[in-house]
Amino acid sequence: MHFESASVIEKYLRELQETPMPRKIREDGGIIYLSHNNLGPLEVSHALSSSIAHFGHAKRLDGGYGKHSHQATPIQLDPFRAPEVILGTGWSYSADIWNLGVLIWDLLEDRPLFTNIRTRSKKHYPERHLAAMIALLGPPPHELLKCEREGRHWRWEPKIPNDSGKLCDRVIDLYGGSFFDFKGLSLANTITSLSGNEKAEFLEFVKKMLQWQPEKRKTAKELLDDPWLAEVMKRQQYDII
Length: 241
Fold this sequence. Notes:
The protein is mainly alpha-helical. The protein contains nine helices and four strands, in the order H-E-E-H-H-H-H-E-E-H-H-H-H.
């Protein structure tokens, strides 16, 4: 991981001179600066260029999943939020694998997998988000729903305001419940750029990432051994030759 050019840092430093970063001074004399999580768009566009931002969403992780983990504080941007985060069942590293599975639609189809998950005021609509997951992947397993009921008692500090401004220390207060009405929607009909066996093999590949239960998602190492991905990489090698 690196910056695309030194000009990104130079521009950032010039902006700091013109508009200094907000700060506060603690009682012990220490200075705390407001974090800066967006260095602007990429200067050069490539087919698979990516921009890493929102460092404020990064979390230190120590723990597991389900009843053995109290990692229930909200993480991730709205369109990429994993089901265990919305349900408050406890999240772990596999939440990143969910992110990867969802991101593929932006790269392959040039559109997000989960649409209509915001209100008219552009606020996240957890009920519709979960409804879309259910429509695409089927109902959540009983074990996950059991963890959701147990997780209703977990609390975090400090409290976090929800979209209405209410301070919340539980997922159930932050996101609420779920319902859906997405007739005729399936994972297969969201893919229009592939067909036949290639489409079927691709769907088997992404289903290994888009799993309700975090522990059932394949690891990045296991995904590298997938037949569909191996065939794609093989074709790219021939194209290079």
